[in-house]
Write a structure and sequence with these properties.
This protein has four helices and no strands. The model has no long low-confidence stretch (mean pLDDT about 95). The protein has about 150 residues and is mostly helical. Helix 1 runs antiparallel to helix 2, helix 1 runs antiparallel to helix 4 and helix 3 runs antiparallel to helix 4. It is elongated and about 60 Å long. Keywords: Membrane, Transmembrane, Transmembrane helix.
């Protein structure tokens, strides 16, 4: 086994681990958020669940990005590597919004004893858009990775 083979194996493992963690956590919190739009029970469950899913999503992004940097080390920044870079940037920006706007809002409501109350419609709309971005970003990036691997 060459050093190049080892880099490829480790980096692909990192990418796939990142997708498993990140996409799994995104799927869980997206389903909670969807159910929480009209249910006080699921609104409270979403507030509690996001405390677990948020770090898992960040761990997934970090693993996928660093794995991608190593995996695509000999590729030009075009096509699939470029798409993955753009998607990673979008997911990171979206994650920053969720971590530094939505999460503090949910935690504040929880401290105030309002975690089971439905979220205001503006927050619901912004969170829904953010969840759609996360869901589509993660799933499309995984699909594009599969396309890349099937061609190489």
């Amino acid at each position: 086994m060459t050093t190049t083979d080892l880099y490829d194996i480790v980096s692909l493992f990192m990418i796939l681990s990142g997708f498993i963690l990140g996409l799994g956590a995104v799927t869980v919190i997206d389903l909670h958020g969807f159910l929480g739009r009209k249910s006080s029970y699921w609104t409270e469950a979403t507030t509690r669940t996001h405390k677990v899913t948020k770090p898992l999503i960040w761990a997934g992004i970090i693993l996928a990005v660093f794995g991608g940097i190593i995996f695509y080390r000999n590729e030009s920044m075009a096509g699939i590597p470029l798409y993955h870079l753009i998607t990673a940037i979008i997911l990171i920006l979206n994650g920053l919004f969720l971590s530094f706007k939505v999460s503090p809002f949910l935690l504040k409501r929880e401290k105030e004893g309002k975690s089971s109350e439905l979220l205001p419609s503006e927050w619901q709309r912004n969170i829904t858009i953010s969840f759609i971005i996360s869901f589509l970003g993660w799933w499309s990036a995984l699909l594009i990775l599969v396309v890349y691997l099937s061609k190489n």
